[in-house]
Amino acid sequence: MQDVFAQVHQVAPARTTVLLRGESGTGKEVIARALHNLSPRKSEAFVSVNCAALTESLLESELFGHEKGSFTGAQGQRKGRFEMSHGGTLFLDEIGDISPAFQAKLLRVLQEREFERVGGSSIVKVDVRLILATNRNLERMVQAGEFRADLYYRINVVSIQLPPLRERREDIPVMAQHFLDRFNLENSRATQFSPAAMRVLTSCYWPGNVRELENCVERTATMAQGEVIADLAFPCKGNRCLTQVLHHIEREDAVKPGRLADIPIVEVPMAQPPASSTAPSAAAEEHSPADAAALAPQDALATEPDGKPEGERERLIWAMERCGWVQAKAARLLKISPRQMGYALQKNGIEVRKF
């Protein structure tokens, strides 16, 4: 995020078009407002439009305005968002969801900074700084013919990628405390997190990112019985998290110990294949579970007094997440063979996610 902030400070003073990329809930509109507030246009209007919330005809009227009598219900001339943001900043959210027909109309406005109102014939020129955002893969959409290549090149001037919350877990405690402080202020409460509760928040996968974190904190603080929020207060601890149902995530996979990146990876020697290609004997099959345990690099893991690997499951999940749940890549990351990786995942009951 420090890299993101540095890019924001670098590009904010310019008039350059900015494209914000990132998953839903990562804070793209917050960054858009920061770009406006750090620019010379901060005293002018900041206008935001969610392109996915409007149909093509409504979006055209919303952005460009319309003349009196241009359609049923148009009782007078109305300025569009482009005119309303003249001299300031216009933020177009979910730009990847607009129709191909409207993409052609938007292209000329972005190129020439001029347009005609719906039902009008006079040219309207505007001075607008454009910031756009999307959670879609525009490159894939261009290849599939769903997004115009010329529009893509026009909006992709300066691109800022916002990382998902699960890739910056160190920020979770600060943001969670901020949301809780705001809740306490608005509701005259003095609720606080227990250390165990903060560990649950830090460990969550957060598919909904910062927006989901904010909702989770507010929901849990609202339903808390006392002043201290314990770890058992969170819905995920009672298998009641609707996000888990939405994403088909098992409870033990959705809540994982935090700071997984701090678990070291130590190179271990590759297991040598057996010299004989004959079928294993019954005695060998009897000991296969122990062999499978050794295949999930025992030497690289700290062990408890009872000999059980400490953090083995967490290391496997960490490696799979780092490699997009591709077993072969995760095996190379852990310096083991794909066969060893398969045994280790099966032994620890880790279900490989499909994307």
3D structure, described in words:
It is built from 17 helices and 13 strands. It is of the alpha/beta class. The chain has three domains: 162 residues, Rossmann fold; 89 residues, Helicase, Ruva Protein, domain 3 (Orthogonal Bundle), CATH 1.10.8.60; 77 residues, no CATH class. The protein has a five-stranded parallel sheet. Strands 3-4 form a two-stranded antiparallel ribbon. It has a two-stranded antiparallel sheet with strand order 6-7. Helix 5 packs across helix 7. The two termini are 26 Å apart.
Percent range for β-strand residues: 5-15%
By helix and strand content, what is the structural category? alpha/beta
CATH topology of the largest domain: Rossmann fold
What is the rounded distance between the termini? 26 Å
CATH level 4 superfamily of the largest domain? P-loop containing nucleotide triphosphate hydrolases
Number of DSSP helices? 17
The SSE string, one letter per element, is HEHEHEEHEHEEEHHEHEHHEHHHHEEHHH
Shape: globular
For the residues shown, what is the average pLDDT?
79
In the CATH classification, which architecture of the largest domain applies? 3-Layer(aba) Sandwich
Strand order of the largest sheet: 2-5-8-1-9
In terms of per-residue confidence, which ranges show pLDDT below 50 for 5 or more consecutive residues? Answer: 249-309
- The radius of gyration computed from the alpha-carbon positions, rounded to a whole number of angstroms, is 27 Å
Number of E-state strands: 13
Estimate the helix proportion, in percent: 40-55%
Any idea how many domains?
3
CATH top level of the largest domain is Alpha Beta
Largest sheet: 5 strands, parallel
